[in-house]
Design goal:
globular, 191 residues
């Protein structure tokens, strides 16, 4: 693994690995792993093996983002490499970029929740550096609206468990219900 062991940041990806593993290895047989050149999800190959979520190098934001994808994926998707999703690399066409933004709303809204629970800055990603474009305003608005829906309607069991671990570790709220308040997530953060 390519961790920067000299880091003094409060946001060390090794903490996320520890929190994720404490929360999910026993219940979901899934482990979070850093040090990858590219993010990847691999389901267990045989009974008794662990599913693995690989995030890029030691990047804290990458770890949060990949956990968000795992939390969105249902049981059937979690049996397929990279959840069976398509991925068009950097340099997408306008149509491919629009599809990317459509499918990334929920994961990036969850990443935003995770980042806030870890007291870490969230930045929406268009993941299309070659085009020189950042996330569109429509995409940022969709992420914001989905974040508010998660606050108002609740989150699934895996999201709830990871948020609770993050909140406890980083001291960002006294309870999950106290954390999931729409007023904690202003549009101005994404504008």
């Amino acid at each position: 693994m390519l961790y920067d062991v000299g880091s003094t940041s409060r946001h060390d990806s090794r903490d996320l690995v520890m929190l994720f593993d404490q929360t999910f290895v026993g219940s979901h047989f899934t482990r979070l792993c850093g040090g990858a050149e590219e993010p990847l999800y691999t389901p267990a190959g045989r009974p008794g093996e662990l599913h693995r979520i690989f995030f890029t190098r030691d990047y804290f934001a990458s770890a949060l983002h990949e956990v968000a994808h795992w939390c969105v994926a249902g049981p059937a998707r979690r049996e397929r490499e990279d959840y069976g999703y398509w991925y068009a690399p950097d340099g997408r066409t306008a149509d491919q970029q629009a599809e990317f933004e459509r499918v990334e709303v929920r994961p990036q809204a969850l990443e935003r929740l995770f980042a806030r629970a870890a007291d870490f800055d969230f930045r929406p990603s268009a993941d299309n550096l070659a085009a020189g474009l950042g996330p569109s305003e429509a995409f940022r608005r969709a992420i914001h609206e989905q974040t508010l829906r998660f606050c108002e309607r609740g989150v699934n069991e895996r999201v709830s468990a990871f948020l609770t671990s993050l909140i406890s570790h980083y001291g960002t709220a006294t309870s999950l219900s106290g954390f999931l308040r729409p007023q904690r997530f202003g549009w101005s953060e994404l504008a």
